[in-house]
Amino acid sequence: MSEARSGGDKPRRRQARGERRIAQLLDAAANVFCSVGYRAASTNAIAREAGVSPGTLYQFFPNKEAIGDALSQRLVIEMRNVHGTALSLDHSALGLRELLDRVIDPLVDFNLENPVCFALFHGPDMPQRFDEEHDLLEKAILDQVKTIFAGRAPQLERSALDRTADICWHTFKGVLQAMFEKEDEAERHALVPELKKLLYGYLEPIMGEDAPALRPQAVRGTAGRA
Amino acid sequence: MSEARSGGDKPRRRQARGERRIAQLLDAAANVFCSVGYRAASTNAIAREAGVSPGTLYQFFPNKEAIGDALSQRLVIEMRNVHGTALSLDHSALGLRELLDRVIDPLVDFNLENPVCFALFHGPDMPQRFDEEHDLLEKAILDQVKTIFAGRAPQLERSALDRTADICWHTFKGVLQAMFEKEDEAERHALVPELKKLLYGYLEPIMGEDAPALRPQAVRGTAGRA
Amino acid sequence: MSEARSGGDKPRRRQARGERRIAQLLDAAANVFCSVGYRAASTNAIAREAGVSPGTLYQFFPNKEAIGDALSQRLVIEMRNVHGTALSLDHSALGLRELLDRVIDPLVDFNLENPVCFALFHGPDMPQRFDEEHDLLEKAILDQVKTIFAGRAPQLERSALDRTADICWHTFKGVLQAMFEKEDEAERHALVPELKKLLYGYLEPIMGEDAPALRPQAVRGTAGRA
Amino acid sequence: MSEARSGGDKPRRRQARGERRIAQLLDAAANVFCSVGYRAASTNAIAREAGVSPGTLYQFFPNKEAIGDALSQRLVIEMRNVHGTALSLDHSALGLRELLDRVIDPLVDFNLENPVCFALFHGPDMPQRFDEEHDLLEKAILDQVKTIFAGRAPQLERSALDRTADICWHTFKGVLQAMFEKEDEAERHALVPELKKLLYGYLEPIMGEDAPALRPQAVRGTAGRA
DNA sequence: GATGAATGAGGATTCATTCAT
DNA sequence: TATGAATGAATCCTCATTCAT
């Protein structure tokens, strides 16, 4: 009778309603987190924003942190999709410039559409960098980046590789932050080509423009230039 | 040697203790803000960290926000010094690489020594981006950066100049963030040369390596390379 | 029988408990205000007196002042009823003595049953003489008194009328205060006839004993006696 | 060396300074009590009003209540003077009207000049009706009033006498309150004759107009008139 | 004596969480 | 399930009072 899956679609429908409620609540939480930050976001405010009572919120989340966790996880899943598409495909045939296009554009788009990422994943506001999921994700992202970089700059040793990826990732986030600070949509997007120039100027000396698939066997150590 | 000595120092005598207390409290606040953020920092925690009672804190600051304000202001003053030295001197005879050295090093040093800057001036946690002073400071910094850039890339039009400075500033902050995430001192500082390479790679195509003072009369358009 | 019954009573169901709580809290507040005054009344004490937790109090009142306001308003409403009945009916056929009976008795009764009126509406203790509502009420009361007086002493000019009403009102309050200072119920009520004598002695020379409806057209200016 | 009275006038002068300080502080306290009441008056505010530091205040008063006590006592002394002059002299030769003049005028004057009396001696704000001194004083005043009344209305029995005096005293205070509510000096004083009429109208039926010294031996029963 | 900083208990208020309906 | 009232610990802040200078 409870938690049943015996008969037809009744539990299904319940489940469905629950899912909707959860989505609703997470959306509300995202909004509230965005405007006031995690700590200052009261669960009551989230419930109000979602148009439900506090009690209802606690029907779905055991506590405030769980809301952040769930939101974080949802974002991580979406990010995984976006980054999977952007990073995990085969880039070995692309030129560096094209590679940057393929990777940066979707990431920028996703982040601009989900500003809560910044609210959640930055600053000392939240409890332990929400969910190790996110750290895992960042690690995964960096690993993918490193794999790509390793394919294009085989001569790089581990530590240099790490550092390079790290720099790119934080530069990306820094410029993203710049975008959030612009009110004007046009100005925002005008930063994208600059970001690409920035990373291109940094990476080209390290790994060259050419796709690894097109290169002769001999790797030219352009990294030595730095 | 410093502070009051001319005229009557009677009204100062007592103040001395007070001034020390204020500094003490601001230091404590900086620590607490750093570790848990502004919102989560309880005034009692700050007082405890400073080794005084809550009442004492309120003898000097009317409320919690005022603490953030005062800390912010203190940082702004220190930043003004550092940036004044770093940015306002005559760079016209320096090569771009040298310029970056002269500017980036002190800024990095200052920020690593005052990590509270990041805690205070980022995220939606604090009330109104603490004190418009800071915004003014950022604007001033950017203006100085723009002045330098304009001297080296006279062909740049206003909007491009703005964008270029903006990108540099946020890249700087992004890499700074990366530094904060490293536990290891050596790894931290290993990011500095990368930051310089990054910015050099971005700026060189725009303004060239040469100092403006050393250039032949005709300066032109190396930006075209990008 | 009273309250919601038309239309949807769904939003009312819950409210019922709330309304009861509010009344309960106001009663508690009245008690506490009475015994220690507004300022010294702690919200926790009020909550305790009402048998609820501090949080519950704040579910219904945003702050301490709001409690005073609400209580004030409730009293004003009740006073309006009592005074409406006492003052707004037609007194033109009553002798002065009977008039005083009809007016004074219910007012005294009400005030003895609601001693908080004195606690709230006197002294510099409370924020801005709680709610302009009360001032409006006092003004309304005085206006009604003046109307009655004007009907009985048409020769009185405005300023004298104002003064007469004022004196009566404050005398009433003064004697009320005397009643509050008596422990003994009998002694308390023994003051009522004295109050009436007092006011009769003051008013009779001004407006005579006779009801205006019963007087011949000529009005005798007994006020001149004073 | 301390507290000495050995030598000449040094301790005198000290004493004198102390007295001045105390007066200064009591004046300040009177002001603050008047504007915000006893409870809301912070000792720091009183010290500030007096132009001294909190520490200094506590050099002269062990605690806040002591300030109220001292102020109360000072007022009581002054009141004793005023009332002594007004009430304790021989009134047996005066007519009632003249008696009221002699008594009411100085009392009104004193109270208007010392509004703190109202702040201190009314309402539930202060700790136990400040100092039994004041209660004693009130009792003394009432006793004097009763003595006078007894001389003029020998037929009155004890309880009626008490009540009569009580009524007069509270009526006086009620009208005083009315005076404090007027901004305009002229309006204020216009209430004095009304107060006299009021009391005259009340007392005349009880004790007649004539002074007891002038009456024939058989005095009786004018009270019956009321 | 005077000063102003220091203290800490107490009071107002918030908010995550629970519970009765 | 949904609701909204209930809870109480934690937080910000005040203020009577004390203390070092």
From TrEMBL, chains A, B, C, D:
DNA-binding span(s): 42-61
UniProt-listed PROSITE patterns: HTH_TETR_1, HTH_TETR_2
Highest taxon listed in the record's lineage: Bacteria
A single GO molecular function term of this UniProt record: DNA-binding transcription factor activity
HTH tetR-type domain ranges (all copies): 19-79
Matches recorded under Pfam families: TetR_C_15, TetR_N
Residues spanning the signal sequence: none
Keyword line: DNA-binding, Transcription, Transcription regulation
InterPro entries: DNA-bd_HTH_TetR-type_CS, Homeodomain-like_sf, HTH-type_TetR-like_transc_reg, HTH_TetR, TetR_C_15
The name this protein goes by in its record: TetR family transcriptional regulator
Native organism: Wenjunlia tyrosinilytica
